[in-house]
Amino acid sequence: MDDTRTQFGETWHRSVRAVREQPSIAVGLGIVIVMLLAGFFMPLPFSPTRPDPINTLQPPSGSHWFGTDSDGFDVFSRTIASAARDLPLALLGTLASVLIGVPLGLLASSRSRWSERIMRGLDVFQSFPLVILAITIVTLTGNRLENVILAIIVINVPRFMRLIRSEALALRESRFIEAARAVGAGRIRVLRRHMLPNVLGVTLAQSSLAAAHAIVVIAALSFVGAGVSPPNPSWGLMIQAGARQMTTGDWWVVVFPGLAVLLTVAALNLVADGLQARRESEH
Amino acid sequence: MTLIKLIAKRLLMIPISMFVLITLTFLLLELMPGNPAVTIAGDFASEEEVASIEEELGLNDPLLERYVNYLGDVVTGDLGRSFFTERPVRDELLERVPATIELVILALIVASGIGLLLGTLGAYFRRQFYDRFSRGAVTLFQSTPDFLLALVLIYLFFFLWGLAPAPVGRLGLSGGSVDRVTGFLLIDTLIAGDFESFVNAAKHLLLPVAALGVVYAAYFAKTARSTMATALDSSQVEFARACGLSELKVVRYGLLQARTPILTYAAILFGALIGGAAIIERIFSWQGAGQWALEAILSLDIPVIQGFILAAGFLTIFVYLLLDVLVLVLDPRIRYE
Amino acid sequence: MAHGPLLEVKGITTRFDTRHGSVKAVNAVSFQADRGEMVGIVGESGCGKSATVRSVLGLIRKPGRVVDGEVLLDGRDLLHIPKRELRRVRGDRIGFVAQNPFASLNPILKIERQFHNVITAHRGRSSRSSTRPLAREMLDAVGIPGPDRILDGYAHELSGGMAQRVVIAMALSLDPELIIADEPTTALDVTIQGQILDLLKRNSVDEGRSLVLVTHDLGVVAQYCDRVVVMYAGKVVETGPVREVFSRPWHPYTLGLLQSVPRRGAKVKSLPGRVPSLIDYPVGCPFANRCSFAFDRCREEAPELSPVFPDGVTQRAVSCHADPEEVSASVPRAR
């Protein structure tokens, strides 16, 4: 009992110190949280799903801050509303990938010949253009949100598995695992109490990178029309709808959702950078 | 083992990898839920129509039989026909793949060039002002989806400043055509002596290559920076400095040591670029293999999808082989095992 | 030729700024090397010997920095000249030999290429055919048979001893006045160590060059060096002519080192306690917690290195509050 409590306390203190030392982590997380809150709770001036067919392709103005698109949707409202879809999707997908990929990676780090063969098989995976894979999965299984998460899982689980496995293998070689074993700790116990905390650092850094990439994949998916159900807004869908307008000069339809994607992905990359810098300085 | 033996060993791996690839491709699409016959027949087709299409496509045969048939077909070069256009997949592939490769190779060159430069400068000026600034810029471009950048570039360079041609295809609507020799426009136009078309093709390549190249340059720069940073911290570089070599020479020493991981990353980017190129091709109506595959995926044209995956997989395996050989040739240590 | 020592290191202080604090790796280190003199810098691992010589060569990079001191080569302060000129000094006037030859030689370039790069960096551009004879000559000088084959080959094809000879040859190729060797034999087989050291001595002091040899081996210092610099926790605790310092040491740490060398018939004594943290550097003498001669003043006030001329000519210095006569009286006598 006491053990878990002090473990939480220690994790809390280390997190606070991490945020204070690396401002990029705080800034990145802050942006993501603000976007989530805005997406879910911000009152929108116009309906994001009901267009106003009279006011199409209006440039940004006092009433329509981000302008309107060719159907008459208010770009601002739809951009904010998309945050409630795209961002949670990416985060959930990443979380699911971690929950599946990390234990699998730990298991795969046992030195059996099977695990090496499986990893070699997964290596073939690496030569796949991943966005194409995601589009294929979503299209073939149906344009539903759950399948978008499935696609993200399929893309990320091999990556996490490989990363966690190599970390775990390196840790296995290290002395303190030997010591734990020598004291008689069973395999599961060794995995849980000794490997997991050390693997956590790598997992966190990779997770923010994976989440950043997930947003781009989700945007690409909705850009080509996979996984969307109009008129529900999504950044990629908005960009696709406004693509033709870029050749006729109505830039706001694409630029504002594009900036939203850029901001979110950059925020998550910042968090990843900060975590990585912290891990580097610890060595 | 001599160099030739090592290369031969690598070459032998190709058929094995291709075998695995073909199997996986077959399984990937067979195991996916959804009935292609339904998609082809359309939403309003009757049950009999769907059943007859299923029979026609051989979808009712046992799995193993279908697999063996597929394997045999692929090995003899028959990649099937498109569900929708009925054209042989192989012909379409051969026609369209060069357009994609031209785009991908040029984008890779741009990405590697810019990325290596930025990464090396960042590693050299580590922790100083330039580094912070370039890392910010790199993060920014890494966070930009390539299709977004492509659209922004179209707006700026085509609409606003009129510097680039309209994003319609490799030669534009009024570009005419060029006799096809290799399929690479930049080469074919020169072979035909058609300088005007060469310039036209180059102009149309500018924006798509820029969109892909800049975004992937950011990824490359990140890897290059960390690889060069390790190299510049090495004892060999310290010794070179102690011998009084100029800083330029010292950086060259670092580049030599970082050569292998950087080349490896370039090969990895090649595989990623094939995927990224697909969406860009769509935006620019490139008529390349990527765009074609994208449309096939969205319309569940299974033979085309399978054909594209095989082609992309084969290209990537080939590039990795090239990389392996290059690394072997360049690194004197590995030769004398 | 100018008068005075060739190399005068005065008060070098080097810090490394890490997350856990500032590592005081080198603290007000001073020593000198006359022309044709072999100086041995000795001390246990982590005492700052390598950091010191790297500070002398200007090879300290972030997060480290040299915060104080002067390095006078023939009267010119190397720490305060433009980088361009420092580069000209390195290799040309000061040759460097590091511990691991495979960590010095470039694994990808042919040996000849590396010689060529070093030579042309200082002697101006020339073709490889004109630098090759010099390289061959240097390889001969370090006793490598069949130099042509070595020149056309790569570093990984050499054994440890051969590789170190190549490094030494490279360090000598521009005829430097001073050679700095940082533990040149530590990574090599014991059987070759003597050969390499003989080689170094032959090609340096026997030809009028100065050699600064960093080592943790007292025996090596006793056998080869003219002058010794004893370091502890980043400070010079004692320095002087080898014979005198080893027969009549003035610092308790030197005494402890001498006593811990196993000798026939005597018990091996080892020093109690541990080296202090370089981050939480103690006030007072860093050796106080292990010193049998320590008294209150030692824990409060750090002793300074004070040069003394016992016979009016040769310089000795010690950094200690205790009475040197007392310390030297405790030296074990050979049986």
Q: Beta-strand percentage of chain C?
A: 15-25%
What number of structural domains do the residues of chain C give?
2
Mean pLDDT of chain C: 86
Residue stretches of chain B low in confidence (pLDDT < 50, at least 5 long) are none
From the spread of the alpha carbons, the general shape of chain C counts as globular
Can you tell me the CATH architecture of the largest domain in chain C? 3-Layer(aba) Sandwich
**How much strand of chain B?**
under 5%
Helix content of chain B: over 70%
Q: Kindly report the average pLDDT value of chain B.
A: 83
Strand order of the largest sheet of chain C: 6-7-8-3-9-10-12-11
Oligomeric state as shown: heterotrimer
The secondary-structure element order of chain B is HHHHHHHHHHHHHH
**CA-based gyration radius of chain B:** 24 Å
Q: Helix- and strand-based class of chain B?
A: mainly alpha
Number of helices of chain C: 12
What is the CA–CA distance across the termini of chain C?
46 Å
- Straight-line N-to-C gap of chain B: 6 Å
Alpha-carbon Rg of chain C, integer: 21 Å
Could you give the count of β-strands of chain B? 0
The chain pair forming the largest interface, with residue counts per chain, is:
A-B, 42 and 51 residues
Account of the protein in words:
- The complex is a heterotrimer of chains A (283), B (337) and C (335).
- Chain A has 283 residues and is mostly helical.
- Chain A has helices spanning 2-21, 23-41, 75-108, 113-126, 130-141, 145-173, 175-183, 187-224, 235-241, 245-248, 252-281.
- The longest helix of chain A has 38 residues, at 187-224.
- Chain A is elongated.
- Chain B has 337 residues and is mainly alpha-helical.
- The longest helix of chain B has 38 residues, at 195-232.
- The mean pLDDT of chain B is 83.
- Chain C is globular.
- By secondary structure, chain C is α/β, with parallel strands linked by helices.
- Chains in contact: A-B, B-C.
